[in-house]
Recover the amino acids of this structure.
């Protein structure tokens, strides 16, 4: 409980509890509102802590399973914070503007990403040197423009498993696309939004940079934890595989040694029987010397 109290204290200091003006509220946010003060709604931080922890646990499992979580925040206050956080855990992000169809028309967007990467390659390996100065400049400008919008999803080979949105009202297009594709959604929901529109709503002030930073950092810490656990279990599996391999190799060698010993035992028995019996030497490998004295005895 102490941990929750300190988290609540941090959220309070970051101003996560400040909602919008009463006249701008969405009635569906009623369960998450603690009180009204000077015409402004105050968010219940007990609820924020509960929902934040629930969201973090769910997002950690997604990261642990090796799937991608995409961060979406095109608001001025959130851009830098979210970009930096997403880069820290190597997750895709959209912080400049949301391209319509970034998810629903993913294949076309991937083509644009590939085009951007091929321009980058041309400029880097010198194959653009044969072009005129003006053409090179145009290419460079195109690349910069694309980099701005598509840079965050350059490494995204397939659709993400989840979206984390700052201000679900502002990012309504991204939210609608995710819903259409059945992608799990997590979002910071202020008092002017409908919390039922996202799968995991975190009631919080989505306008203050401090509030955005504390919530996003908490989510990113959960993702980092999930990734670390995934890596640990991978390493464990590898060491188990190696142990199994070593055991199998040891068993194989043991079996070979035993069969060698068995063969060696028969060979040793053959020498005295064949030698003194005066059996011709070339018959010894075939075991002829061994069989004949035994057969003679029986007859």
């Amino acid at each position: 409980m102490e941990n929750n109290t300190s988290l609540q204290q941090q959220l309070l200091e970051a101003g996560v509890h400040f909602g919008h003006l009463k006249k701008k509220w969405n009635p569906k946010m009623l369960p998450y509102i603690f009180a009204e003060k000077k015409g402004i709604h105050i968010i219940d931080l007990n609820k924020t802590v509960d929902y934040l922890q629930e969201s973090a646990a769910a997002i950690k499992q997604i990261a642990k399973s090796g799937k991608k979580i995409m961060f979406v925040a095109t608001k001025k206050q959130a851009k830098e914070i979210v970009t930096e956080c997403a880069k820290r855990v190597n997750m895709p992000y959209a912080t400049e503007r949301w391209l319509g169809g970034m998810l629903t028309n993913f294949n076309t967007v991937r083509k644009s990403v590939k085009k951007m990467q091929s321009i980058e390659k041309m400029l880097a390996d010198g194959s653009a040197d044969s072009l005129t100065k003006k053409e090179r400049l145009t290419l460079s400008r195109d690349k910069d423009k694309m980099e701005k919008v598509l840079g965050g999803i350059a490494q995204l080979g397939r659709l993400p498993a989840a979206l984390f949105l700052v201000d679900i009202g502002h990012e309504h297009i991204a939210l609608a696309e995710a819903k259409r594709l059945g992608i799990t959604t997590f979002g910071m929901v202020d008092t002017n939004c409908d919390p039922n529109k996202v799968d995991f709503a975190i009631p919080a002030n989505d306008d203050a940079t401090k509030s955005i930073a504390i919530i996003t950092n908490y989510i990113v810490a959960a993702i980092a934890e999930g990734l670390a656990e995934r890596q640990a279990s991978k390493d464990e599996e590898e060491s188990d595989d190696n142990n199994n391999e070593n055991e199998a190799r040891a068993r194989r060698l043991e079996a070979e040694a035993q069969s060698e010993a068995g063969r060696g035992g028969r060979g040793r028995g053959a020498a005295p029987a064949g030698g003194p019996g005066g059996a011709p030497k070339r018959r010894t490998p075939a075991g002829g010397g061994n069989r004949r004295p035994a057969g003679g005895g029986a007859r």
Observations:
- The chain has eight helices and eight strands.
- The CA atoms of residues 114 and 154 lie 8 Å apart.
- The helical segments are 2-13, 45-64, 79-88, 106-125, 133-150, 172-181, 209-274, 288-298.
